[in-house]
Design the sequence.
């Protein structure tokens, strides 16, 4: 199993400074979190589960995680007060911030926003593909933009002799049916692992709010920003093979451990796993197009922050600047296509409830 | 309030590599932890508190914290099995590792020993002079070599106009009665803060095992290692004033936020606070003299790891190597006095129980 933490620290290429697009997603799910907590949290639980344990899985170091936690607690407090539980009887909250062991927890903990709010904070290092918490010890679980990261690149895709070994294209977002199938199988296995772990950790009736980029069956015309960025990164790497800046084998063997499931596919995996009911599953609403201005540099920084670690390891640290510089030119060339679709929906919101 | 974390990382001057003397203390308290858990943990609690929450306050980054947690869990498991609770009915353990926000948690989490054992691990950054956990959420609390660190140097000692302002000597280990009184008052206030916070966080019947260096009323002849080291550090700084390497005012204004209480003094503070009963209070047994060989370099590294941060800030980073080099000469000169007393007891073990 491999770990792919976001860029640490507070520098110009850090995830902390380059996660505002993910942050917009988190703002967009605020309304869904509100709805989820209003309609699906049992008020009996809120008055008896004390302390009330919340976990954010894949918190990284950035500001988004604090925003998500703030929304969850505000919605829980609103639920309490609207049901007549006065503040002296409301539960105390303890929030567990989880990410890979190699995540930059020092930066997370030193953030002025860490632990600020009506809650006690803890960090939990480790992979959510394994167990992280004691049995039945969590009440509400949140995870945003994490489940599309696979625990590893599917073995078949890494095997030159396999029909799923692929040339040129990165990841399983598109490509030969064998490649797509290998990625889907890895996702299925990872999700089953994830759901079985969480089924142990959540109390019966506990909720899990997930947001992840999904495969909306887009055409070239209506591709959301991140999908288009991946396509251009692909093209950039192929250009660099043509001009001799990168070796063909090195590019062929570069695979991102990312899978975007179809909404139906995700729902089916949850049902097959059997521990959770699907309470809500819907794409995040599109942002009004006018609200997000297109900025090629910002877009590139946003794909760089999560991918830089993997790319340094595979291509070598010295070439990474050049790859992203070339990507920026390509993004600028496509600015019309990007700006037309800046607000396009690309994320799925899912609310699961632990069955009794 | 100020934070004084130990030296981070894994380098030659890190606390992680220079805490074996503290580690010997933790080995010495193993027998006391065993006794505390055997005689003072209520078996009803062990079968109903699930998950069972343990916290280590002031964990730093070193190996000692893992050893202490291992001993506690082994003793709890032994208690379970000796009382006929079979392993399927034993509680799951969750351990919270706490230290200052500026502690090097990245190194702690990356340690191969972190979270290794039958427990789930979390990090909790923050000062134990404030609240860290929800109400009544902890069952067993451990803290070693932390409580002698004050939240700040007493104000009176920092005030040139106060009769407690002191010349020359560092800390309140010795000096004019006003200095000693100012340190004792700060310790009293910090302990009251600490105990009130923990009284909120521990369940009634929950235990707190504390080890701290204490003031045994030693003479020059029977001084334990650390006390003697502080005296020589004092002398080193005064030498450096005489030879013009350090400014007199800079040395006069250097104060360590450390207080070693008398055993009686500590017991009295707990009683006055009123939330805990004192179940055990006794000095750690002396080690057999033959078991610890004297090593001047090792001794100096052991005092450097915890003090370097404060000393860099006060004297400037460039002079710190020289101070510790000079200290080493002095320690070597005193090697006879040191080696005679290597195993002398200097630590107090205290077991407190949260009153109902």
Sequence:
């Amino acid at each position: 199993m491999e770990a792919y933490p976001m860029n640490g620290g507070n520098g110009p290429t850090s995830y902390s400074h380059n996660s505002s697009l993910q942050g917009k997603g988190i703002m967009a799910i605020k309304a869904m979190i509100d709805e989820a907590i209003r309609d699906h949290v049992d008020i009996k639980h809120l008055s008896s589960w004390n302390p009330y344990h919340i976990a954010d899985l894949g918190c990284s170091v950035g500001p988004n995680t604090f925003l998500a936690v703030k929304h969850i607690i505000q919605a829980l407090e609103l639920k309490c007060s609207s049901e007549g539980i006065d503040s002296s009887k409301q539960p105390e909250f303890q929030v567990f911030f989880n990410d890979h062991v190699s995540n930059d927890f020092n930066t997370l903990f030193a953030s002025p926003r860490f632990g600020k709010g009506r809650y006690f904070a803890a960090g939990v290092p480790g992979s959510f593909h394994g167990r992280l918490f004691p049995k039945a010890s969590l009440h509400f679980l949140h995870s945003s933009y994490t489940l599309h990261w696979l625990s590893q690149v599917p073995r078949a895709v890494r095997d030159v002799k396999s029909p799923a070994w692929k040339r040129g294209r990165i990841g399983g977002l598109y490509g030969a049916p064998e490649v797509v199938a290998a990625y889907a199988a890895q996702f299925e296995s990872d999700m089953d692992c994830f759901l079985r772990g969480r089924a142990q950790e959540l109390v019966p009736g506990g909720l899990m709010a997930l947001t992840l980029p999904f495969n909306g069956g887009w055409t070239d015309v209506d591709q959301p920003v991140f999908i288009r960025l991946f396509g251009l990164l692909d093209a950039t790497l192929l250009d660099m093979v043509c001009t001799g800046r990168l070796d063909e084998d090195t590019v062929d063997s570069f695979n991102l451990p990312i899978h975007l499931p179809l909404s139906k596919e995700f729902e089916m995996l949850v049902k097959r796993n059997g521990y959770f009911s699907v309470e809500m599953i819907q794409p995040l609403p599109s942002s009004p197009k006018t609200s997000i201005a297109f900025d090629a540099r910002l877009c590139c920084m946003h794909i760089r922050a999560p991918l830089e670690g993997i790319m340094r390891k595979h291509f070598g640290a010295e070439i990474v600047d050049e790859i992203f510089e070339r990507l920026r030119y390509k993004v600028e060339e496509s600015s019309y296509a990007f700006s037309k679709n800046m607000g396009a929906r690309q994320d799925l919101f899912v609310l699961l409830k632990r069955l009794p």
Remarks:
- Chain B is about 45% helix and 15% strand.
